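Protocol step 4 of 6.
Sequence for DNA-binding protein HU (Halochromatium glycolicum) entered exactly as in the expression construct, tag removed. Do not edit the line below.
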Amino acid sequence: MNKSELVDAMADAADISKSSASRALDALTDSIAATLKNGESVSIIGFGTFSVKERAARTGRNPQTGETIQIAASKNPSFKAGKALKDAIQ
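Step 5 output, structure tokens:
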């Protein structure tokens, strides 16, 4: 399912226009991104938790040359599914 299909499904389920569903989806994703950028997590009970995981700096190896390289520390978004979501897909 891509974004436009999700917007269509939201519009049908909520009985709203597609433009309203699109704005609601954009607001949701923007709010989650802004909260994660501030280092906080977003918990939606029954669905899951969005959080930021920090990855430490490490040494790696260039597969073409075999040369060791330094890989910088980074922050990555993470999602942990809630119990209701896990139960819904089984």
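Step 6, annotate. The mean pLDDT is 95.
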